[in-house]
């Protein structure tokens, strides 16, 4: 009898966790264990090590995160606990139990002042509590387990959970006119594509630790993104471009969030899909719900 390797996925009720659940049947050679933050306290060393002893995962994909960017400004301790401390605890457990860790990070580790796509070698300089907590998580993961793979992503959306696409669809159905920021640019990431990339990395049989960037292809503003959503939904809502200054938020956002995906593509042969193509794919899933 062939013993299947086990993939442990934390934060399983988030966008990426849900997409991994959808893809799991396509990878029957693995046994998946999906756990939510409520079921598995990734910030408790004893609980984590006990779970690893019982489940013996070959891989751990850490999708768990504190993602309320603005709320983090008033809840720094909680953000740093989940985003900063917990990845180190998971990484140490992975090292102790011969488990390979894939940890998900963010474009918010950068300050957004660049004029060309960020690589894994670009200097980090987060401008928000959320970004600082995520950078702390990266550093702790690498410190506790240098064999870790860290994937930074940006502008994540899905047919699951709360995200920009679903918010725009709701607002466009409720209001005759909305304003969307046009001076922040980046590359959207369909969580279904990221989930597929993660499982392709695991199933490739290769393992090259380090920091990687993954997004869909293309550089657009939030306004451009909203206009594409308007077009696909055939909404009659008027979408107007506004500046960041016209839409103040508690947390600062990087004005330029473009990540260079060349390394992950070259190392793991992961395809980088055009953002518009992926948006159309996600739309079909939203409509089918």
Provide key terms for this protein.
single chain; about 40% helix; three-stranded mixed sheet; six-stranded parallel sheet; about 290 residues; Rossmann fold; 9 helices; 13 strands; alpha/beta; globular
Question: What is the domain total for the residues?
Answer: 1
Strand portion, in percent? 15-25%
Q: What does the radius of gyration come to? A: 19 Å
Task: Indicate the CATH class.
Answer: Alpha Beta
Mean pLDDT: 96
Overall CATH architecture:
3-Layer(aba) Sandwich
Topology, element by element:
Layout (H helix, E strand, L loop, with lengths): L4 E6 L4 H9 L6 E6 L9 H11 L3 E4 L13 H21 L3 E7 L22 H16 L4 E5 L2 E2 L6 H11 L2 E5 L3 E2 L2 E2 H13 L6 E4 L6 E2 H12 L4 E5 L13 E2 L4 H7 L6 H14 L1
Parallel strand pairs: 1-2, 1-3, 3-4, 4-5, 5-10, 6-9, 7-12, 8-13
Antiparallel strand pairs: 8-11
Helix pairs in contact: 1-6, 2-3, 3-4, 5-7, 7-9
